[in-house]
């Protein structure tokens, strides 16, 4: 089976992953309208391609908050990589480093931050944070990440509670016995993902907690989950360095807009004061180009990274990134 | 089979109800365009979700004409609950009371108003009225309802004649021998639902009959079936206390607008002078939130209540309401 | 099999008619986009239904150029009724008379005008005319029709050449040996429908030929096939008495607009100076009401009449008309 | 199997061509959205058909840069005709000449320009050019074409690199051993189509190279692949004689607009200063009429020509052209 485009990796993952794991990665909230819209919305956007421009040399590198990456695609934070590949987040870290891009490691990793760092020393990484009711847990995570050389803190803002993903409820989703939420070991007795686990998160977090985070760390703060100009304005005013336009892959509020649609108003509101990124629905190189044309500095991939891992671990993820890189470069050339 | 969302109850009801009963509950007029539009219209409405708001405590209670209910979902009037569950409307009344919400009992109940009252004493109930050619029948029903403690009178305005539901015609729909339109016993010789039964209703009813109703009772009058700003204005002028934006579940005029679309102009016309509710197409918590965001004080569920009854009587209906309550609370949190 | 709605007759006709005949009646030009749009366009039009109006008595009669019909649905001109039922147009004439409506007999009838007249004496009929290269043929037809008591002349304007109906080409469509274009017997040696037959029609007909027709007859002239305001204006200026907005059932120019969409601009252009009718896509009572609400005085049915004939001859056609009548009356009541 | 419309030829070609060849001809870039949009866009365009015009005589001839063709449909440049029929481009040339229309021979022909010329002496032909990194190769091709009597030079502007056609990658598409890119023999050691072959093209070509081309030849230059008003303006300013609005059949940048949609802005920008043509999505006569109504002087067919070749070589291609001609003439008549 030739792996020609990202759909091939999707088909592979669907075929070879255990059903409960595939369902967990694929899940969207409720009827999955937002999850599907993330992809469909790109079809409604057309290029105005320009011809006869010299496209013999193209520079597709970019910088995230000053750090260069090889092309404008990073790895979005997703949990439980060991469900996709035995080495889990260690493989993800190695692939991201090999491809010279940014990997946002999730609080819900099945490897410790220390293991992730050791697996790919010197890699460009950000750390994704959920704020727990027990603030000491969150504080400790932030400080471990900073100490380990993570270069940014990504605060997920759209999960005060977990969205309702029907298949996960039906499957009674929980981690297999040999996997743990390793970064939270010690903090909580049961380091297992299960329906009650998310209730350890604090639904009372507000914009003021950005100040609290700033007091804990020198790392730049990127806020993830913004979908409106009003919240974009608030984010800028509270001193974040970046915004990830995201609807959590359509896994939280079904009925939220497609991210590529929300991007437009966020970019307009932000007026270049902070960097704006996007995740959700990126499946081919032209999607990346559309997001950049509409003002994103970079996009992040979630599910496609997991499909790559499911295919062949770090090699598979590199394949996914390489395909996107080639397609992106080609789209740029063809669009002039 | 796990009952995770309302579609699960629908599938159950379709599988286990007798075909003629399923067809009757599911029926829409003609090509069922309006019935289906009621649901599809929600997909076209997107949230503008806000982040980092304190959603740790949420109050989802509301009041209908001054009476508190636990969350903004009531039971719309539908007929023949014994087709779904042996205890019929008695179960419905018990479930509504247990969930602290409002149940609108139909003229076409298969239990008497007295049985319904006795089954759940003290429950919050409204009575739905059709006006018969023989006005004495209607008058007697209104006065029985008032005497029994029903707290509101819901006048159905969109059924001068019954809509054409093709499957009912094909099935020759009528009630089984052991069921009766019990509230009309004595009033009519044949208390059976059949094609000619509806001809006992009065198609000459006009707005002036609102005054007649007001002369019969002290109960507040809620008018059900309004879809235009013109009729909303007339309703307010004739002194009703509430409006239910409804197209009778798409069972009457095929080609009528989806209720969530009609809601907007009704709310704008009413300008808060009376309470506005909606039924039709509510299938998940985010639908409720959309209706409320567009100005409804509360929504009512019709078919989903019947699916709940078909599943496990009052327990099943409570399950349906509890799922909607959880989903609504979650949607509110996730939308900020 | 209960015949509840027009689709039931369609299914019957598809099942029991010979394939070549079904294909001929069902055919649309090219990809059948316009044929299908005729029906789909109604779905995009929503009512604004009004409530609490006295709908106990409704008068659904109307007049076509002064002659009363029982409800605003007539029989559009279609050819070759013997393909649907042995008695052919004689049955059509009897059904139309029984239902007190107007039947537009086609030039391409398989019964003579005389047979049609004799079958239902005193019926309200118009005669549909194609103008032949040999004008004497057309003149003779017009004068026979007038002499026989036909009350109007319907000039088809949209068939200078026949549209390309792929299935007819594939089937090598022609009439069976025992059927003839009886009205043209004597005029042409071969009274058989075949690919070359239509070449007897005159593609050089222009608006001036309206004057020629007017010189031949005292009958009012109705022009069929108008789809634009420009042509509607020309029709009025040339002194026609009525306009049928039609795209020939989508059988001529694929890509022409749906008739219900074209109706709006024609009605606006005509400003009541002549009567405007419509054919194409009428499948249920609410379609009729939509067309009337948008300015049509009456609609005509083509294929549904043939399905009725195919079901049970004149009885079947009466069934079709009666269903439409009931549905139309109900839609009127429900829309207030 | 009757060949009634172009879809019949498509079905034939799909059935009888080797899979790799069918896939190559059918391929679109990425998800094939643009390829499919080319066709779907015509469905959204409706005629405003006019009636009672004298359509007995119609002149469907037109001129391309002064040279008359029998009707406004030419043969777009496509490669590798021997994949469709053993005689390859020689058959194409013969069919085009027989039908008195223009054939644009591709650089990637499997016959030499000399063979093409000899096969149909005196035929009206243009030569399609890719500019190679080795400019001497391109220069030699231009001068051979001019010497052989080709009457125009079509510069393809939208292929600095080849689009990603997934099936071609999966099939490892390359020419069979007995076929060659004959026009490039001698210029390159390997005259085989393969993934690296296109890298011989020069992605640094810019508008200035139009001047270089003009210095090489007296032939008029037509630029192919323009989709925006900005590029149309540049084309006019650089002195081209014609523009082909094209997205390379949806084979290059997925997400480019349908050509019929792009045509409108190009025509408006050009204001008649040069001739504007279109290719992409033409499948029936009414498509041609829509393109002409929107300002195209002529359209070109790509895949349908190949299907015609696959059916019966030059006879098959003539069949395709004749069907389009008949359908176009009929559409003109029916649209008035």
Automatic annotation (TrEMBL), chains A, B, C, D:
InterPro entries reported for this sequence: Aldolase_TIM, Alpha-hydoxy_acid_DH_FMN, FMN-dep_DH, FMN_HAD, FMN_hydac_DH_AS
Domain FMN hydroxy acid dehydrogenase: 1-336
Residues at the active site: 248 (proton acceptor)
UniProt binding sites for FMN: 77-79, 106, 128, 130, 156, 224, 246, 279-283, 302-303
SUPFAM superfamilies in the cross-refs: FMN-linked oxidoreductases (SSF51395)
Reactions that this protein is recorded to catalyse: 2-hydroxyoctanoate + O2 = 2-oxooctanoate + H2O2; a (2S)-2-hydroxycarboxylate + O2 = a 2-oxocarboxylate + H2O2
Keywords: Flavoprotein, FMN, Oxidoreductase
Cofactor(s) in the UniProt record: FMN
GO biological process: fatty acid alpha-oxidation
CDD domains xref list: alpha_hydroxyacid_oxid_FMN
Enzyme Commission numbers on file: 1.1.3.15
One of the record's GO cellular component terms: peroxisomal matrix
Residues reported to bind glyoxylate: 165, 248, 251
GO molecular function: (S)-2-hydroxy-acid oxidase activity; FMN binding
Entry similarity comment: Belongs to the FMN-dependent alpha-hydroxy acid dehydrogenase family.
UniProt protein name: (S)-2-hydroxy-acid oxidase
Organism from which the protein derives: Halcyon senegalensis
Lineage: Eukaryota, Metazoa, Chordata, Craniata, Vertebrata
